[in-house]
């Protein structure tokens, strides 16, 4: 699972050259911090992006630096011990990089075209997909994510949940389409303990253009 997670990172997130090593960087949001109001407050967006996501990026870079040192000295024990830090922080970086793109101030409504047809084929109706994903996501115990993903082998859309920051593709084999972050840092300042209200509201800013692009790419 570790090598799969590291491979996902290579493809999923932007990197830039710093000295002789490649470091991950915090991607800019494609909109202002207050752009998703009233669904998600500016306070939440600012903390979530500039503090929480930034911490995953920083800690991922630290873990990768330690991994490189361990590899250079043939320290396999340390390489193995770094596995959980790579999954947690690498997953946090992958998940949030997708999440920002999955949302839009111009979002909401329903998808069209082949994505809508696939949703109707695999879930019966758009409303049923929405209801099932919302219920699964609300039911995540503790911190985690709910996902609409694409199963390439089966050629169909599926719903899955992941604990903590486990990345969907590396741990469940599904290509991420739409993720709902249900860590308390994603909603508590605004929705307090009422996670269902946050999950129901997030559909108002779901970026179907981005989700459709991921769906089309996954099927290539
Ligand atoms: Fe988050």
TrEMBL record:
SUPFAM superfamilies linked: Fe,Mn superoxide dismutase (SOD), C-terminal domain, Fe,Mn superoxide dismutase (SOD), N-terminal domain
Primary localization: mitochondrion
Catalytic activity: 2 superoxide + 2 H(+) = H2O2 + O2
One matching Pfam family: Sod_Fe_N
Boundaries of every Manganese/iron superoxide dismutase N-terminal domain copy: 23-104
Subcellular location: Mitochondrion
Gene Ontology cellular component terms for the protein in this record: mitochondrion
Enzyme type, top EC level: oxidoreductase
Family according to the record: Belongs to the iron/manganese superoxide dismutase family.
Designated name of the protein: Superoxide dismutase
